[in-house]
């Protein structure tokens, strides 16, 4: 996995807000404390409109999702 520069997602979020694009943070790899915060978006300093957590709950071993 290639980690983007620190300000990358913050700048992408600004562009999404400017053009009214719904931003979703897919927390399959970075969620649940793997980066030191509960979600990767918190570690990367941006606030998405929604967070996807389905595979991160069980590492993909059991089909489970979250709201």
Structural class: alpha+beta
Question: Quick one: biggest sheet?
Answer: 2 strands, parallel
* Rg computed from alpha carbons, rounded to a whole number of angstroms: 13 Å
Helical content (DSSP H or I, runs of 4+): 10-25%
The percent range for strand residues is: 5-15%
Alpha plus pi helix count: 2
Q: What integer is the average pLDDT?
A: 80
- Output the helix-strand order: HEHE
Q: Quaternary arrangement of the chains shown?
A: single chain
The strand line-up of the biggest sheet is 1-2
Shape: globular
Low-pLDDT runs of 5+ residues are none
Strand runs, count: 2
Distance between the termini: 27 Å
Throw out a few tags for this protein.
67 residues; alpha+beta; two-stranded parallel ribbon; 2 strands; globular
Task: Describe what this molecule looks like in 3D.
22% of the residues lie in helices and 9% in strands. It has 67 residues and is α+β, with helices and mostly antiparallel strands. It has a two-stranded parallel ribbon with strand order 1-2. It is globular, with a radius of gyration of 13 Å. It starts with 7 loop residues before the first helix and ends in a 15-residue tail after the last strand. The relative contact order is 0.20. The model has no long low-confidence stretch (mean pLDDT 80).
Q: How would you summarize the topology of this molecule?
A:
Blueprint: H1 8-18, E1 24-26, H2 40-43, E2 50-52
Parallel strand pairs: 1-2
């Amino acid at each position: 996995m290639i980690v983007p520069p620190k300000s990358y997602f913050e700048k992408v979020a600004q562009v999404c807000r400017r053009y009214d694009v719904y931003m979703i943070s897919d927390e399959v790899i970075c969620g649940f404390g793997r980066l030191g915060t509960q979600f990767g978006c918190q570690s990367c300093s941006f606030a998405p409109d929604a967070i996807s957590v389905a595979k991160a709950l069980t590492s993909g071993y059991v089909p489970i999702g979250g709201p």
